[in-house]
Design goal:
This protein is mainly alpha-helical. Helix content is 54%, strand content 3%. Bound molecules: coenzyme A (COA).
């Protein structure tokens, strides 16, 4: 093997590397703060709507009259969804829908605000249609009066959603809309930097988010709480899981060294939802015990609740099946991905880092024996 003479710094997973500049969001892991365009996430959740927040991410402006309604699906998108086999993963379905949408819209570079709005509005209709088709039901036409979260619930069930559920899902959409240079957003920016189109960038981002290290945790939080079953069983269950070297789902974070501000905002939302009471009582009791035991086991490492823990409570509370949790996250993240694509294109330079070569030293085919 060649001994590398390249002494430039290398960080596995690009951890700690500044790989770009953004004015969209600030993730302050040390102090447990998250701000979109300078506004703290907790204020946005309390006083804003997803439509207002999406406009803020895209344009930097706060518009009181911002509105987003679910888009009508075009023929190619519906045909793509209908062609998927039974049991298709919802993330694969959403990615396929975005791909078909991009093809039928004949998108070109650079990404625009109109494209970002249209794609973000299409995603909930596509996911709802997919969920119904998989159950042998016909898709429901979008209701132009409803916002994105309420419109998604309506298209999923065919019934007017109750206001607290729609509000809770809207709050979740706000919390999940954007989070700096995570793997999927970085993927979207890399694709945009080649001057490819917005649908391609979002397809790539959905692919990155599909991996369990990025977008899969809330589903596992639900199964963890089901296994624990009751607050009385929590301590023993957690001790045994930690003794086996397992991770507690919904705890710990690469960036946050404090309570995840998104978890705090979502816990407030979950507490305002009547129908989650029983489930929330279990989640809160388990959280307290888990935090205490994680602190005992890792006195030198701050391990706090992360966003996925209360995401599970909210999504379960609004009646979504766990199989739709990751794709619901992806839907909400459309605002952030598309905002980053627009920002990347506004000062573009192709993202093309270098790699350290650690393979064979130079050699020649001539040294190999000639085949008979
Ligand atoms: N449960 C139990 N122990 C945990 C833990 C968890 N959820 N998260 C981290 N730890 C422990 C690790 O075992 C490790 O201990 P060790 O040093 O004795 O080996 C230590 O804390 C540091 O963990 P590390 O893997 O280096 O942290 P990371 O920054 O790379 O990982 C996560 C971050 C999110 C991947 C990790 O905390 C995790 O797997 N959490 C559970 C999954 C989850 O909730 N994901 C959603 C993230 S938003």
């Amino acid at each position: 093997m060649e001994t590398s003479t390249d002494t430039r710094p290398y960080s596995a997973g690009l951890e700690g590397v500044i790989a770009g500049e953004t004015a969209i969001a600030k993730v302050d892991g040390q102090n447990g703060r998250l701000m979109y365009r300078g506004y703290p996430i907790v204020e946005l959740v309390r006083h804003g709507t997803y439509a207002q927040v999406a406009e803020l991410l895209w344009t930097g402006e706060w518009r009181e009259d911002a509105a987003l309604h679910c888009g009508t699906l075009t023929g190619p998108v519906l045909a793509a969804l209908r062609s998927l086999p039974d049991g298709t993963n919802a993330m694969d379905a959403l990615r396929s829908a975005v791909s078909a949408w991009g093809a039928s819209e004949r998108l070109t570079y650079p990404p625009t605000l109109e494209q970002a709005r249209a794609l973000t509005a299409m995603a909930p209709s596509a996911l709802a249609a997919f969920a119904r088709l998989q159950q042998g039901l016909d898709p429901v036409e979008p209701d132009a009066e409803l916002g994105l979260a309420a419109g998604f619930l309506y298209q999923l069930t065919g019934e007017a959603p109750d206001a607290p559920a729609a509000r809770a899902l809207d709050a979740y959409f706000i919390v999940a809309a954007e989070h700096g240079f995570n793997a999927s957003t970085f993927t979207a920016r890399v694709i945009t930097s080649t001057q490819s189109d917005l649908a391609s960038a979002v397809c790539g981002a959905i692919g990155a988010l599909k991996g369990p290290l990025h977008g899969g945790a809330p589903t596992e939080v639900v199964s963890q709480l089901h296994k624990i079953g009751s607050p009385e069983r929590a301590e023993q269950w957690i001790r045994e899981a930690l003794d086996r070297g397992e991770r507690l789902m919904g705890f710990g974070h690469r960036v946050y060294r404090a309570y995840d501000p998104r978890a705090a905002a979502l816990r407030e939302v979950a507490e305002g939802m009547g129908n989650t009471a029983e489930w929330l009582r279990l989640a809160v009791a388990v959280e307290d015990i888990a935090l205490r035991m994680l602190a005992e086991r890792h006195p030198d490492r701050v391990l706090k609740t992360n966003v996925e823990y209360y995401t599970a409570a909210v999504l379960q509370g609004v009646g979504l099946p766990p199989s739709l949790f990751p794709a619901t996250f992806a839907m909400a993240r459309h605002a952030g991905w598309t905002a980053h694509a627009i920002e990347q294109a506004s000062a573009n330079r192709i993202i093309r880092p270098d790699v350290r070569y650690i393979g064979e030293a130079e050699r020649s085919l001539a040294t190999l024996a000639t085949p008979a």
